[in-house]
Amino acid sequence: MRRKAGIVIGACAALVLAGSAGALVARTSENPAGTWNEAAAAVPRTVDTPVAENTTTPATPVTSATPATVIPSHVTSTTVAPPAPPAPPASRAPKKKTKSESARRPLESATVPPAGRQRIGSLQRVDELLGYLAGPKRQEFAYPGASYVKVHFERLDMLPGDYVTVSNPAGTESYRYENDADGRWAMSVTGDTAIVEVHRESGATGTLSSLGVDIDQVARGDRLEHRREESVKVGPAGPGREESVCGTDTSSDAVCYESKDPIAYTKSKAIARLLINGTELCTGWRVGAKNRMITNNHCLTNSNEAYDTEVWFNYQCAKCGGSDVFKPTKVWGDKVLATDKTYDFTLFSVDGFDKIQKFGYLTLDTARPKRGQELYVPQHPAGEPAKIAGSKGEAASNCAVDNPDYTGYAAHSDVSYFCDTAGGSSGSPVISRATNRVVALHHFGGCPNSGVRGDLLAGRLRAYL
């Protein structure tokens, strides 16, 4: 079944959040998704760079209450009234598709992603069979210099009790999958090598010639620093200008704030790097105490997209300016609960909420932002480990509310600012230093950049949160 048995195997020391200013060391006998590695166990820093800018407008809005329903194209904006919460299903099967449909699907790397998503890495077609009578039991996919490797199974057809694992060479990151005749993406493995192996546990015999594990695609991330300075033509924010560095990029690694601005550092733990379809990026964050994530509508619109989206928490540098990162906690997106094109938001849940609860959450500010209000923006620009724009005490003109009555997709919908962002920052929270609440959902660039007002979102999402 869908993601029924994806697990992480291995043992490590872990850090957990403690209060608002730091972390305590804890020991565990295993390394479930969600633990923090100690700095000594950090892995080499992996930075993903967009390879193409996006100039198209966001997709037609979709609302979802399991399953998602498509809004007619003539409808410009809709927020769904929340239905009575359904009982969670015992298992969630993916959308059925035939093998011929899968073969006809174009490679994502050969298409232009929706506006606002930033492309990283590449996707290539492969034809590998791991099986019983045909094909090896173990296959290595190595791409020197890649920041991650992610395989797609066209089918997983095994005897009951048998399973397949996708792991890094050291075995410190490993995910297990059981039968799924319709195929699925595996969770990415951090680093440049993924090992796929079939495990025979059942001992059963019978007709084995038709059984096997087919791998038809592999996505891999590029590793390269994004530009620290960009020449940006100052102009109105809007579609096709989703993120901008205004002059010199003054954002810093989130960990640089640990001692000088512990509240901002702690709040940054609630954000996540979104890896969509294996090769596209946005930022998302936990909103409220429930199983709720929010990002832009131009990043996600429906549950099918959410199913194939990896949500990475704790993807942060181990030391300020260092080259090592903590091992991220990776969970899958789940159901889209509400989405709106005009206010450019999508609210969704994740599969594996218990693994990410410890990272905390952010709260929408119900008060309208005011001109000059100082801000900070935790984000994953270009897919990098978490950064924060807006240093404490920084000149208000650089990261502060410039216009509290700015036009986004609608008049009066946005607030503008000059906080630095970059490709992949779409969906980041814009936080008030006065309240440490979210006053905007970042979505446009142009210097000034702009985000949808948090008070408007609070009103539309109150019933869900």
From TrEMBL:
Superkingdom: Bacteria
Q: Does the keyword Transport apply?
A: no
- Keyword terms, alphabetized: Signal
Tell whether Signal is among the UniProt keywords. yes
- Compositional bias (Pro residues) at which positions? 82-91
> Which residues does the annotated region (Disordered) include?
41-117, 224-246
Show which residues constitute the signal peptide.
1-23
A Pfam family found in this protein is: Trypsin_2
What InterPro entries does the database record attribute to this sequence? Peptidase_S1_PA, Peptidase_S1_PA_chymotrypsin
UniProt-recorded name of the protein? Trypsin-like peptidase domain-containing protein
